[in-house]
Amino acid sequence: MFEAVELGRKLDKKDYKKQASYYRDKLLFAQFALVNAGAPVYILLEGVDNTCKGEVVNLLNQWLDTRGLEVTGFGPKTDEEAERPRFWRYWRTFPARGSFGLFYGSWYTGELIKRTLEKQSKVDFDSHMLRINRLESMLAQDGALILKFWLHTSKAYQKSKFKELKKDKHGRWQVSELDKALHERYSDYIKAAERAVRLTDQPEAPWIVVESEDDYFRNIMVAKTILQAFENRLAEKKEDVESTKSASAKKPPGDFPTETVLNQIDLSAELSREEYETRLELAQTRLNSLSWRAYHQGVSTVMLFEGWDAAGKGGAIRRIMEAIDARIARVISIAAPTDEEKAHHYLWRFWRHVPRAGRATIYDRSWYGRVLVERVEGYASIDEWRRAYSEINDFEEQLCNHGNVLLKFWLHIDQEEQLSRFEERKATPRKRYKITDEDWRNREKWPAYEQAAHEMIMRTSTDYAPWTLVPANSKRHARVTVLEAVCDRLERALQEKRG
């Protein structure tokens, strides 16, 4: 593939200055228009020669407005990054809508290096590329403009660059031992890059190969490509907005099946106060011990709670937090997204809170809002919530592959029990804050929410992240069931880690 790239093309200085003046102005105007259109832009720079990437970064920092332009380079993982799933470090740097992310190296770089140095098998490399493909497709479907540049240079050119930098006492630092090792394996690096391009080149996230041995030619080609992509996106934006409005206006089907996975749950289970207190104390004592063992062994835990309003999610979470030391666990309560959260992909705010090794994060409501409240209330288009099932499954698979213990609870009550709890909250001053007009309105949409929950459970209960459906008409039974399930799963994970 790269063998077909015609190296050696040049641009003279006079012509470069003329074109540079033109593209600089056009890029700036297009950038402002994209900011107003609210599109997040990803510009990735990859290539064997790091100096080329650095020069393009400097160029774009000069030609674009740096307000809203963030440059990110990825080096070796920090301890904090190594203790979380691989993509966590990248999600933290993703640009918001109307902002531009310029990536000097990217989620490809580490994989290319490991494959080149034979620290990764071809199967694992391909697996990572396919995961990247899904990530970029997901971001693009959410409105991101993604441009991936391969700045191509020959081995001979890189060798000559090394010689130049070696003579420059201010530039020697730019050539590391890793750069030298990769240079020795230039052909292997190119083979890995060619495979990465083949596996991840897609219309919504294309690769652009740019001959980069002449600075002037390279700069103009990069600027020209970016400008064309900006203008194409702006031309499409009006049509996209109209189609999104149309899709959002559509409602899911109004006829719901009478049989769902939820109405098969037996809600008659009860516990006496005496049995409840005995089992509660045993489970909390056990969880306290297990949570500290998990902390010392570096086993992270992610728990999420979904269910009907007033189903007892908060009560179950409180009993868990009574057992786990607050220094190694935290609760993330999910409400309507903030402006900052709305400016990113919906999974962004959940990736941010993925725990470090040995810690626990409890989500009081979760990423499943996309296929529950956003689906039923029309906040997400049909296309958005339908593709969310695979996006969520992929997210959870990454958590589990990294070694996180993931528990998903649906707390289920019937309509009569919910009404009783609503009335109790209304009559009790200290509980009155828990009940809102929206809670009452949601009761009118019970069939729609039940169908959404049924489909959610059927599509996202996987072997690595199954749902636990908790009968919750009895608060005592629900709390003990949750605690014992957490203990059982955590104990199993610790046994598996011990081998």
UniProtKB/TrEMBL annotation:
Residues 10-236, 271-496 form the Polyphosphate kinase-2-related domain. GO terms for biological process: polyphosphate metabolic process. InterPro entries: P-loop_NTPase, PolyP_AMP_Tfrase, PPK2-related. Gene3D superfamilies: P-loop containing nucleotide triphosphate hydrolases. It comes from the Bacteria. Pfam families: PPK2. GO terms for molecular function: polyphosphate:AMP phosphotransferase activity. NCBIfam families: poly_P_AMP_trns (TIGR03708). This is Uncharacterized conserved protein. It comes from Hahella chejuensis (strain KCTC 2396). The lineage of its organism: Bacteria, Pseudomonadati, Pseudomonadota, Gammaproteobacteria, Oceanospirillales.
